[in-house]
Amino acid sequence: MKTILHKADSRGFANHGWLQANHSFSFANWYNKDRMNFGALRVLNDDIIAPKMGFGTHPHKNMEIITIPLKGELKHKDSMGNTWESVLPGEVQVMSAGSGVEHSEINGSIDEHLNLFQIWVMPNKENVAPRYEQKTFDVSNRQNKLQTLVTSIDEDHDGSLKIHQDAKISRIDLDAEKEFSYNLKSEYHGAYVLVIHGTIEIENIELETRDAIGVSETETFKITSKSQASILIIEVPMRF
Question: Which residue numbers in the chain have pLDDT < 70?
């Protein structure tokens, strides 16, 4: 088994006033040659956006973009005809940029900050037709069990959103003193595990809120919760 530990305070940080951004991997003006990606996972940003503020219209191409709001209201508009769609905590949004798309993202609240994760996964197909999906996931369905949010568009998995990559994005909420075994899709996959909140242990390594660990070259690994914990797991091919 191979592991790589990324403590919360080792992430890149940018304070733009209206935006407080934490970068797990090199992004924008933050560059770390040792933090370019984890397999096909290219970006994991933990953003806090001030009320009524956001990202103006900008382009993307050949990237699978997944957004998970944690608090507040995200408003999304794009060149595919989606006009200020609301994306709320409990929902997940995916956008396949493919051959090219433009979009805008803003905090839809006038008085509450927006906190979200934005994930970029490098696709296994380029220049596909752009596509957009969002879906609500019942929080109770991830209590002490894995809730699958996103899978490959080529995989027959009911209930998940789809992207152009052999990846799986999941969440699990564990009570204190629980154990959960995670099984990887194949020997060529790895899992990037981020603690949304709480304290867990993986391979005798303790992880606290916003700490992350990449796990690869194994079939399975065990997660042990030291407190109530909410966990995001991004499984991706390590070779692509």
Answer: none
